[in-house]
Design a protein that fits this description.
Blueprint (H helix, E strand, L loop, with lengths): L13 E7 L4 E9 L5 E8 L4 H21 L5 E8 L8 H12 L5 E5 L5 H8 L19 H20 L8 E5 L3 H12 L3 E5 L3 H11 L2 E2 L12 E4 L18 E2 L10 H9 L3 E2 L2 H4 L2 H10 L4 H26 L3 H14 L9
Parallel strand pairs: 3-4, 3-5, 6-7, 6-9, 7-8, 9-10, 10-11
Antiparallel strand pairs: 1-2, 2-4
Helix pairs in contact: 1-11, 2-3, 4-5, 4-9, 4-10, 5-6, 9-10, 10-11
Length: 354
């Protein structure tokens, strides 16, 4: 596929490619939509196999951020950035500062934050070159890192999905398979364990798995087996597109609710999940806790304000989607898109925590 043949290009306001020989930076910033406000979204560093793979990822992720902010009731648009490289090997202060300068060159239409491969200290280095980054602590009591808020939002969503499917949100004895034990997945596993859930976990990093086994009495399986577990809830917390025409028929979960972005390979997969009677909690609806937290940090609001927003908006929006999908016989991902687009057409309707 040629560079300008990506259909998603037509849906984006701006896509900018960056290359800097001295620092080794190769990056893409995609601004999808700024109707509601500046495009906020994380900066991901990942060893993409090609620049085309990185482009596909950033275009999908930036669109998801537009919808995420819209359903979360935030005055923000959607954008995303990716750095091509291995964060364990290629990340340097010079590269991060150069990324900060790249973000700064867009003049504030894009605001970067943490994502896979980029942590709070990395964002602080970028902040030496630009004011247009967020996700590092500027308020007493705030940790800066949005991962805990993301995990909490997904935890609330799992309880909401259980209530809708089983008429009880009690997690005691409920089997949950967590795919990915990174910053969000591990914290989510902690919430679930404390609530009494029985956990099955998988991650390519064996030390994370061993720690979860020790701390949460979790059962460890291989990354190849995690989708096949006979559980009530499957929680994808790793990379996207893991739900596709090949994997869905093998699923044994009745609910899917996780933090990973772009879990569905295509919209048609959401229809397939409906046909298999699997309740899907749309990812950008339930993983919005992080962007909510970062927004309020940037407004110098205390963490409890962001938490009130999450506790009100995430469960209510998810229930609205579940009920509408059930009444209309539609896939939940398609209903979620309708909700997001409606809010984009009515930009004055935003949430404001008191």
């Amino acid at each position: 596929m040629g560079l300008y043949e990506h259909v998603a290009f037509d849906q984006h306001e701006r896509v900018v490619f960056f290359s800097h020989r001295e620092s080794g930076l190769r990056a893409i910033i995609a601004v999808h939509n700024t109707v509601l406000g500046a495009a906020m979204g994380g900066c991901r560093m990942y060893p993409y196999r090609s620049s085309d793979e990185a482009l596909v990822d950033v275009l999908r992720l930036s669109r998801g951020m537009t919808f995420k902010s819209a359903v979360a009731g935030l005055p923000l648009g959607g954008g995303k950035s990716v750095i091509i490289g291995d964060p364990l090997r290629d990340k340097t202060p010079a590269l991060l500062r150069q990324m900060g300068r790249c973000i700064d060159s867009l003049g504030g239409i894009y605001i970067g934050a943490e994502d896979s491969g980029i942590n709070e200290e990395d964002i602080r280095l970028m902040a030496e070159e630009t004011p247009w980054v967020a996700g590092f602590s500027a308020v007493a009591g705030s940790c800066g890192d949005p991962s805990p808020a993301t995990a909490y939002g997904v935890f609330m969503a799992i309880k909401t999905a259980l209530q809708f499917r089983y008429q009880s949100d009690d997690l005691n004895g409920v089997r949950v398979a967590v795919q990915g034990l990174g910053n969000v997945g591990y914290r989510l596993a902690a919430y679930l364990y404390k609530a009494g859930a029985s956990l099955v976990v998988a991650d390519p990093v064996s030390s994370r798995v061993q720690q979860a086994v020790r701390e949460f009495n979790a059962t460890a399986v291989s990354p190849e087996e995690i989708l096949l577990q006979p559980v009530e809830v499957l929680s994808p917390c790793a990379m996207g597109a893991i739900l596709n025409a090949r994997t869905v028929p093998a699923l044994r979960a009745t609910i899917i609710a996780g933090s990973a972005n772009n879990q569905l390979e295509s919209d048609a997969v959401g229809v397939q999940l409906l046909q298999y009677n699997i309740l899907y909690a749309p990812d950008y609806v339930i993983n919005s806790g992080g962007i909510i937290d970062v927004w309020y940090q940037r407004q110098l609001q205390p963490p409890e304000v962001a938490r009130r927003h999450m506790e009100q908006v995430i469960p209510q929006t998810l229930l609205q989607i579940f009920r509408a999908a059930a009444e209309r016989g539609m896939a939940t991902n398609l209903v979620a898109d309708e909700v997001a687009l409606q809010r984009l057409l009515q930009p004055r309707i935003i949430y404001c925590a008191a």
